[in-house]
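are you around this afternoon, could really use another pair of eyes. what follows is a protein written twice so to speak, once as letters and once as structure tokens for the fold. i want to understand how the tokens follow from the sequence so walk me through it. anything you notice is useful, everything is just below.
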Amino acid sequence: MRSKKRYTNATFTKRVDHEAGRHRPSRALSEPTVCEKCGAVYVNRRWTAANSAAETERHKHWRPPQTTVCPACAQQRSGEPRGFVFLDGAFFVAHHEEIEHLLRNEAERAAEDNPLARIMEWKRGDGHKLTVTTTTEHLAQRLGDALEKAFGGDTHYDFSHENKLARVNWQRDD
């Protein structure tokens, strides 16, 4: 028997951001705007790296930029990460300098595309464990992919469906 109830997408969609956008400003920033801490530039409704040559060429005729704090700097100040990368295992103990160097380089490459994707903190844990916190869940996933591609090991990805948070666990015991 068919139901007389009309189909609605509301029963299948989940609200991802329970903060309801409270971390976002109520209005778009005026352009151009420069972050007073990191120097990132807000132009064309997008944050770009401070040393981007394309932005300086295109917008010479604009008024002097305003200063503000970019979302990544504000997030670092508040201490709310969006991604965690947990590293563990005997291989990590033996090669921790190489692994940390790889993670720093991958974070720098990610910042070229999105200057708001940053590593917030490096925490040493019990003996040989390391926890890296990131400002975006995509950076955590990218770091996990880079670790798996470069060194192998077991990588597990956990994503929160309630809010924007990623946990990446990497371990190699060789």
User: Anything to note?
Assistant: The chain has a mean pLDDT of 83. The chain has two domains: 14-76, 81-171. Residues 44 and 88 are 41 Å apart (CA to CA). DSSP finds five helices and nine strands in the chain.
